[in-house]
Design goal:
Radius of gyration: 19 Å
Shape: globular
Order of helices and strands: HHHHHHHHHHHHH
Number of helices: 13
Largest sheet: none
Number of strands: 0
Length: 241
Protein backbone atom coordinates (compact mmCIF):
# COMPACT_ATOMS: atom_id res chain seq x y z
CA UNK A 1 0.00 0.00 0.00
CA UNK A 2 2.84 2.37 0.82
CA UNK A 3 4.34 2.01 -2.66
CA UNK A 4 1.00 2.73 -4.31
CA UNK A 5 0.49 5.75 -2.05
CA UNK A 6 3.96 7.11 -2.80
CA UNK A 7 3.49 6.51 -6.53
CA UNK A 8 0.21 8.45 -6.58
CA UNK A 9 1.61 11.33 -4.52
CA UNK A 10 4.68 11.54 -6.76
CA UNK A 11 2.47 11.44 -9.84
CA UNK A 12 0.34 14.30 -8.54
CA UNK A 13 3.22 16.48 -7.38
CA UNK A 14 5.14 15.98 -10.63
CA UNK A 15 2.20 17.23 -12.69
CA UNK A 16 0.30 20.49 -12.79
CA UNK A 17 -3.02 18.98 -11.73
CA UNK A 18 -2.27 19.01 -7.99
CA UNK A 19 -1.10 22.61 -8.02
CA UNK A 20 -4.02 23.72 -10.21
CA UNK A 21 -6.57 22.05 -7.92
CA UNK A 22 -5.01 23.53 -4.78
CA UNK A 23 -4.77 26.97 -6.41
CA UNK A 24 -8.37 26.86 -7.65
CA UNK A 25 -9.64 25.91 -4.20
CA UNK A 26 -7.63 28.59 -2.39
CA UNK A 27 -8.47 31.33 -4.91
CA UNK A 28 -12.17 30.44 -4.94
CA UNK A 29 -12.41 30.37 -1.15
CA UNK A 30 -10.29 33.51 -0.80
CA UNK A 31 -12.60 35.43 -3.13
CA UNK A 32 -15.70 34.20 -1.32
CA UNK A 33 -14.39 34.93 2.16
CA UNK A 34 -12.55 38.20 1.58
CA UNK A 35 -13.59 39.81 -1.73
CA UNK A 36 -17.10 39.16 -3.04
CA UNK A 37 -19.46 41.75 -1.50
CA UNK A 38 -22.29 39.26 -0.86
CA UNK A 39 -20.14 36.89 1.19
CA UNK A 40 -16.98 38.59 2.50
CA UNK A 41 -16.46 38.80 6.26
CA UNK A 42 -15.30 42.42 6.16
CA UNK A 43 -18.73 43.69 5.06
CA UNK A 44 -20.45 41.12 7.27
CA UNK A 45 -18.89 42.75 10.31
CA UNK A 46 -18.38 39.61 12.39
CA UNK A 47 -15.24 37.54 12.91
CA UNK A 48 -16.94 34.42 11.63
CA UNK A 49 -15.84 31.72 9.16
CA UNK A 50 -19.38 30.67 8.29
CA UNK A 51 -18.92 31.68 4.65
CA UNK A 52 -15.90 29.43 4.27
CA UNK A 53 -17.47 26.39 5.88
CA UNK A 54 -20.78 26.90 4.06
CA UNK A 55 -19.21 27.21 0.61
CA UNK A 56 -16.20 24.85 0.87
CA UNK A 57 -18.28 21.63 0.55
CA UNK A 58 -19.75 22.81 -2.77
CA UNK A 59 -16.31 23.66 -4.16
CA UNK A 60 -14.82 20.37 -2.92
CA UNK A 61 -17.62 18.22 -4.34
CA UNK A 62 -16.37 19.23 -7.79
CA UNK A 63 -12.63 19.45 -7.15
CA UNK A 64 -12.28 16.10 -5.38
CA UNK A 65 -13.85 14.09 -8.26
CA UNK A 66 -11.31 15.83 -10.51
CA UNK A 67 -8.58 14.34 -8.32
CA UNK A 68 -10.00 10.83 -8.03
CA UNK A 69 -11.57 10.35 -11.47
CA UNK A 70 -8.42 8.90 -13.07
CA UNK A 71 -7.07 6.91 -10.15
CA UNK A 72 -8.64 3.57 -11.03
CA UNK A 73 -10.37 4.46 -14.31
CA UNK A 74 -7.02 5.22 -15.94
CA UNK A 75 -5.54 1.99 -14.59
CA UNK A 76 -8.45 0.02 -16.05
CA UNK A 77 -8.42 1.85 -19.37
CA UNK A 78 -4.66 1.43 -19.87
CA UNK A 79 -4.59 -2.15 -18.62
CA UNK A 80 -2.12 -1.43 -15.82
CA UNK A 81 -4.69 -2.61 -13.27
CA UNK A 82 -3.92 -6.13 -14.50
CA UNK A 83 -0.23 -5.59 -13.73
CA UNK A 84 -1.12 -4.46 -10.21
CA UNK A 85 -3.32 -7.53 -9.83
CA UNK A 86 -0.40 -9.92 -10.22
CA UNK A 87 1.82 -8.04 -7.78
CA UNK A 88 1.90 -8.99 -4.07
CA UNK A 89 -0.71 -6.41 -3.09
CA UNK A 90 -4.34 -6.99 -2.25
CA UNK A 91 -7.25 -5.18 -3.86
CA UNK A 92 -7.86 -3.41 -0.56
CA UNK A 93 -4.27 -2.17 -0.47
CA UNK A 94 -4.66 -0.77 -3.98
CA UNK A 95 -7.85 1.04 -3.00
CA UNK A 96 -6.44 2.36 0.29
CA UNK A 97 -3.18 3.52 -1.29
CA UNK A 98 -5.00 5.59 -3.88
CA UNK A 99 -7.59 6.79 -1.36
CA UNK A 100 -5.02 8.13 1.12
CA UNK A 101 -3.10 9.78 -1.71
CA UNK A 102 -6.24 11.68 -2.75
CA UNK A 103 -7.03 12.57 0.85
CA UNK A 104 -3.48 13.86 1.38
CA UNK A 105 -3.81 16.19 -1.59
CA UNK A 106 -7.14 17.51 -0.29
CA UNK A 107 -5.62 18.05 3.16
CA UNK A 108 -2.81 20.06 1.55
CA UNK A 109 -5.45 22.25 -0.10
CA UNK A 110 -7.36 22.83 3.14
CA UNK A 111 -4.33 23.38 5.38
CA UNK A 112 -3.41 26.89 4.10
CA UNK A 113 -6.91 28.15 4.97
CA UNK A 114 -5.88 28.05 8.64
CA UNK A 115 -4.44 31.49 7.85
CA UNK A 116 -8.06 32.69 7.74
CA UNK A 117 -8.40 31.83 11.44
CA UNK A 118 -5.36 33.89 12.34
CA UNK A 119 -6.55 36.80 10.19
CA UNK A 120 -10.02 36.78 11.74
CA UNK A 121 -8.54 36.53 15.21
CA UNK A 122 -6.46 39.66 14.54
CA UNK A 123 -9.42 41.52 13.03
CA UNK A 124 -11.77 40.65 15.87
CA UNK A 125 -12.65 43.21 18.53
CA UNK A 126 -11.21 42.42 21.00
CA UNK A 127 -8.37 40.55 19.31
CA UNK A 128 -8.82 36.78 19.57
CA UNK A 129 -12.58 36.96 20.04
CA UNK A 130 -13.54 34.12 17.71
CA UNK A 131 -15.47 30.89 18.17
CA UNK A 132 -12.46 28.58 18.44
CA UNK A 133 -14.51 25.48 19.32
CA UNK A 134 -16.91 26.03 16.42
CA UNK A 135 -14.06 26.59 13.96
CA UNK A 136 -12.19 23.49 15.17
CA UNK A 137 -15.34 21.36 14.90
CA UNK A 138 -16.03 22.75 11.43
CA UNK A 139 -12.51 21.90 10.24
CA UNK A 140 -12.85 18.34 11.54
CA UNK A 141 -16.24 18.08 9.86
CA UNK A 142 -14.85 19.47 6.60
CA UNK A 143 -11.99 16.97 6.65
CA UNK A 144 -14.35 14.04 7.27
CA UNK A 145 -16.68 15.32 4.55
CA UNK A 146 -13.72 15.52 2.17
CA UNK A 147 -12.79 11.97 3.16
CA UNK A 148 -16.30 10.84 2.14
CA UNK A 149 -16.02 12.63 -1.21
CA UNK A 150 -12.62 10.98 -1.79
CA UNK A 151 -14.00 7.52 -1.00
CA UNK A 152 -16.95 8.10 -3.33
CA UNK A 153 -14.60 9.33 -6.05
CA UNK A 154 -12.48 6.19 -5.73
CA UNK A 155 -15.63 4.05 -6.04
CA UNK A 156 -16.89 5.79 -9.19
CA UNK A 157 -13.39 5.58 -10.69
CA UNK A 158 -13.42 1.84 -10.01
CA UNK A 159 -16.83 1.42 -11.62
CA UNK A 160 -15.93 2.87 -15.01
CA UNK A 161 -12.91 3.20 -17.28
CA UNK A 162 -14.12 6.61 -18.51
CA UNK A 163 -12.70 9.43 -16.40
CA UNK A 164 -15.36 11.94 -17.44
CA UNK A 165 -18.15 9.56 -16.46
CA UNK A 166 -16.41 8.92 -13.13
CA UNK A 167 -16.18 12.67 -12.50
CA UNK A 168 -19.83 13.35 -13.37
CA UNK A 169 -21.19 10.48 -11.27
CA UNK A 170 -19.01 11.38 -8.26
CA UNK A 171 -19.98 15.06 -8.38
CA UNK A 172 -23.68 14.28 -8.80
CA UNK A 173 -23.83 11.68 -6.02
CA UNK A 174 -21.80 13.96 -3.73
CA UNK A 175 -24.36 16.71 -4.24
CA UNK A 176 -27.26 14.35 -3.58
CA UNK A 177 -25.71 12.92 -0.44
CA UNK A 178 -24.71 16.32 0.91
CA UNK A 179 -27.67 18.56 0.28
CA UNK A 180 -30.12 16.59 -1.86
CA UNK A 181 -31.37 14.30 0.89
CA UNK A 182 -31.71 17.20 3.32
CA UNK A 183 -33.70 19.21 0.78
CA UNK A 184 -35.86 16.18 0.01
CA UNK A 185 -36.58 15.74 3.72
CA UNK A 186 -37.85 19.33 3.80
CA UNK A 187 -40.72 18.52 1.44
CA UNK A 188 -43.91 18.34 3.48
CA UNK A 189 -44.90 14.82 2.44
CA UNK A 190 -42.78 12.62 4.67
CA UNK A 191 -44.40 13.32 8.04
CA UNK A 192 -42.45 11.44 10.74
CA UNK A 193 -39.92 10.18 8.17
CA UNK A 194 -38.53 13.67 7.51
CA UNK A 195 -36.05 13.65 10.40
CA UNK A 196 -34.65 10.14 9.70
CA UNK A 197 -34.27 11.06 6.03
CA UNK A 198 -32.52 14.30 6.97
CA UNK A 199 -30.14 12.38 9.25
CA UNK A 200 -29.02 10.30 6.27
CA UNK A 201 -27.58 13.40 4.61
CA UNK A 202 -23.96 14.45 4.96
CA UNK A 203 -25.06 18.04 5.50
CA UNK A 204 -26.96 17.19 8.69
CA UNK A 205 -23.91 15.67 10.40
CA UNK A 206 -21.54 18.29 8.95
CA UNK A 207 -23.65 21.12 10.37
CA UNK A 208 -23.87 19.33 13.72
CA UNK A 209 -20.08 19.21 13.98
CA UNK A 210 -19.74 22.88 13.02
CA UNK A 211 -21.35 23.82 16.34
CA UNK A 212 -18.18 22.71 18.09
CA UNK A 213 -19.72 19.73 19.86
CA UNK A 214 -18.15 16.54 18.53
CA UNK A 215 -20.74 13.80 18.84
CA UNK A 216 -19.46 10.25 18.39
CA UNK A 217 -22.58 9.49 16.32
CA UNK A 218 -21.61 12.09 13.71
CA UNK A 219 -18.04 10.80 13.53
CA UNK A 220 -19.25 7.19 13.32
CA UNK A 221 -21.63 8.16 10.52
CA UNK A 222 -18.82 9.63 8.41
CA UNK A 223 -16.48 6.71 9.09
CA UNK A 224 -19.21 4.21 8.20
CA UNK A 225 -19.94 5.90 4.88
CA UNK A 226 -16.22 6.04 4.06
CA UNK A 227 -15.75 2.37 4.93
CA UNK A 228 -18.79 1.42 2.84
CA UNK A 229 -17.54 3.21 -0.28
CA UNK A 230 -14.04 1.77 0.08
CA UNK A 231 -15.43 -1.73 0.61
CA UNK A 232 -17.52 -1.52 -2.56
CA UNK A 233 -14.47 -0.18 -4.42
CA UNK A 234 -12.55 -3.26 -3.35
CA UNK A 235 -15.44 -5.52 -4.43
CA UNK A 236 -15.55 -3.78 -7.80
CA UNK A 237 -11.86 -4.45 -8.42
CA UNK A 238 -12.30 -8.06 -7.36
CA UNK A 239 -15.25 -8.48 -9.71
CA UNK A 240 -13.31 -6.93 -12.62
CA UNK A 241 -10.54 -9.45 -12.12
Amino acid sequence: MRNIYQKEISSFLSSLIAYIIIAVFLVAMGLLVWVFPETNVIDYGYADMGTFFNMAPFVLMFLIPAITMKMLAEETNSGTIEILAVKPVTKLQIVLGKYFAALTLVALAILPTLVYCFSLSELANPVGNIDTAGIAGSYIGLFLLSAVFCALGILTSALTSNQVVAFVIAAFVSFILFTGLNSLAGINVWSSLSLPLSKLSLEYHYNAMSKGLLDSRDILYFLSVIAGFLYFSKLTLTYKK
